[in-house]
């Protein structure tokens, strides 16, 4: 679809007549974004109102990332394309960031001084090792080491000062005293990894309304071969698989007011959905801001996520997280005494400028692939079933990004992430019992659904949810509880033809 030079997909979309009265479109009783004129704000509200017409695709629905959408051929590299509207200079930065994202770090000391500093304890040697092909991680198969999945660790607060720091977002969690905030299963030569992750599954059958029997695997997690002494008896453990990288820069440019407008923490409207915003401190300013990244929405920016991953996953220090020993705790003295990769002539950290900036830019510009088969009858039918089941109460279809975005490729784009980026109680079945930031042990951030239909193409599997326990879309839906229970029950009540149609819609995303 072509437009005049300089015309964005959103600008074309905004030529559509308003579907709502201006007062209703603006939403006078909700937080209102301040980057638009009243006229543009009203039009944006109209464009992002969920549809009620399922006889045909919506305008620009095939382009979920707006003008940044990738229209490249579908293949294993579908999640690794640059924003389609990025400049030539931006593409060069993207390629440099890609090289650093794929870079294999080595232990210190090393003759490759610009690449050493790995660990001493770590989960992976590169960003790409977890986010394989920039896509979705998975739990280890029997006999494999956990690479694209790891365990988060913490303990409950034990003193008033720790509770105060949690309440004021100075800390998001209290690390386990010996093993820190992340369990690391690899180590540089001469050191022992912290131990092994042990996963046990129990299969339990669920019977759907039409008699179909689905087996759900219930995981339990433990650790073995601890190298640095016992863990605290009150340790809280939670597994995480690496999420897909696509569309992160667009998500970062969703105006906070649009997310906050969807929040209903006390369920004031009585619909059973009580999305809660999550706050975190910006490490640069120290100010509390809306957090929207991570499985529990604890990360405020992509730069923060990148720096914390360099530190926690690889053990590499950056200008934002400067500890050269990564996750080595004070109790792990042999780890903290190991050589670091800091080279004074290159800077005071192991990954000095511009490494963090380039990897952040790369992460911000991994394009969302174009939709497929948006006009197929079964996809349209499945879309209506998705809406009717109430899935859009959390998986909000559309947003328009900020008109003030610094990167023009991400500015003022109509996007379709299918997420509200809020925390929701997903029930006891998915609970990890581990509070972090503003999320309690039952709450998870709504994950975006764009690209979900290409998971098998890119990553060779269909394992979903925060720990990959669901082996397909059916299992992922049936695990929904709490605020997702009604939608889950609506799905379980469908006959096979309707479930297949709903799957066709999800697989088109």
Describe the structure.
This protein is an alpha+beta fold and 509 residues long. It has 2 domains: 9-84 and 247-262 and 365-508, Orthogonal Bundle (Cytochrome Bc1 Complex, Chain D, domain 2); 88-245 and 301-364, no CATH class. The chain has helices at residues 9-13, 22-26, 38-48, 88-102, 127-130, 160-167, 248-252, 256-260, 302-314, 333-336, 355-364, 377-388, 455-459, 473-478, 485-492, 496-508, and strands at residues 121-122, 149-154, 182-183, 186-187, 196-207, 213-224, 236-241, 278-281, 288-291, 399-400, 414-415, 423-425, 443-445. Strands 3-2-7 form a 3-stranded antiparallel beta sheet, with no helix packed on it. It has a two-stranded antiparallel sheet with strand order 1-4. A two-stranded antiparallel ribbon has the order 5-6.
Brief characterization of the structure:
This protein has 509 residues and is an alpha+beta fold. The protein has helices at 9-13, 22-26, 38-48, 88-102, 127-130, 160-167, 248-252, 256-260, 302-314, 333-336, 355-364, 377-388, 455-459, 473-478, 485-492, 496-508, and strands at residues 121-122, 149-154, 182-183, 186-187, 196-207, 213-224, 236-241, 278-281, 288-291, 399-400, 414-415, 423-425, 443-445. It is built from 16 helices and 13 strands.
Write the layout of secondary structure elements.
Elements lengths: L8 H5 L8 H5 L11 H11 L39 H15 L18 E2 L4 H4 L18 E6 L5 H8 L14 E2 L2 E2 L8 E12 L5 E12 L11 E6 L6 H5 L3 H5 L17 E4 L6 E4 L10 H13 L18 H4 L18 H10 L12 H12 L10 E2 L13 E2 L7 E3 L17 E3 L9 H5 L13 H6 L6 H8 L3 H13 L1
Antiparallel strand pairs: 1-4, 2-3, 2-7, 5-6, 8-9, 10-11, 12-13
């Amino acid at each position: 679809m072509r437009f005049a030079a300089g015309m964005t997909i959103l600008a074309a979309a905004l030529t559509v007549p308003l579907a709502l009265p201006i007062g209703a479109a603006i939403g006078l009783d909700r937080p209102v974004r301040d980057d638009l004129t009243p006229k543009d704000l009203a039009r944006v509200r109209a464009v992002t109102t969920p549809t009620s017409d399922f006889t045909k695709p919506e305008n620009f629905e095939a382009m979920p990332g707006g003008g940044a959408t990738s229209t490249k051929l579908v293949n294993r590299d579908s999640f690794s394309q640059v924003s389609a509207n990025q400049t030539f200079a931006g593409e060069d930065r993207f390629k440099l960031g890609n090289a650093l994202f794929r870079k294999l770090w080595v232990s210190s000391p090393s003759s490759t001084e610009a690449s050493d500093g790995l660990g001493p304890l770590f989960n992976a040697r590169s960003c790409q090792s977890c986010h394989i092909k920039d896509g979705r991680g998975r739990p280890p198969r029997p006999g494999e080491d956990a690479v694209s999945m790891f365990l988060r660790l913490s303990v409950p607060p034990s003193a008033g000062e720790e509770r105060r720091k949690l309440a004021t977002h100075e800390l998001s969690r209290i690390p386990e005293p010996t093993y820190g905030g992340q369990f690391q299963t690899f180590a540089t030569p001469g050191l022992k990894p912290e131990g092994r992750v042990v996963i046990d599954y129990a299969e339990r059958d669920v019977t759907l309304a039409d008699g179909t029997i689905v087996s759900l695997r219930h995981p339990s997690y433990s650790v073995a071969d601890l190298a640095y002494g016992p863990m605290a008896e009150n340790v809280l453990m939670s597994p995480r698989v690496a999420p897909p990288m696509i569309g992160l820069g667009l998500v970062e440019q969703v105006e906070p007011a649009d997310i906050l407008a969807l929040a209903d923490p006390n369920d004031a409207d009585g619909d059973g959905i009580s999305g809660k915003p999550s706050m975190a401190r910006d490490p640069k300013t120290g100010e509390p801001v809306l957090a929207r990244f991570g499985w529990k929405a604890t990360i405020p920016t992509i730069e923060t996520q990148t720096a914390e991953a360099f530190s926690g996953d690889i053990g590499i220090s950056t200008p934002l997280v400067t500890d050269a020993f990564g996750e080595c705790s004070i109790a792990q003295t042999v780890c903290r005494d190991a050589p670091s990769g800091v080279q004074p002539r290159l800077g005071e950290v192991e990954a000095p400028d511009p490494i963090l900036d380039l990897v952040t830019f790369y992460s911000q510009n991994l394009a969302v692939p174009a939709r497929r088969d948006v006009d197929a009858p079964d996809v349209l039918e499945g879309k209506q079933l998705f809406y009717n089941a109430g899935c859009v109460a959390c998986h909000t279809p559309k947003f328009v990004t900020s008109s003030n975005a610094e990167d023009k490729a991400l500015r003022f784009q109509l996007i379709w992430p299918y997420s509200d980026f809020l925390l929701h109680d997903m029930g006891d079945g998915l609970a990890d019992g581990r509070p972090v930031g503003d999320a309690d042990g039952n709450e998870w951030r709504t994950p975006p659904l764009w690209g979900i239909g290409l998971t098998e193409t890119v990553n060779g599997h269909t394992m979903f949810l925060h720990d990959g326990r669901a082996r397909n879309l059916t299992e992922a839906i049936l695990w929904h509880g709490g605020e997702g229970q009604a939608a889950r029950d609506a799905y379980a009540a469908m006959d096979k033809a309707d479930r297949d149609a709903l799957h066709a819609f999800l697989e088109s995303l």
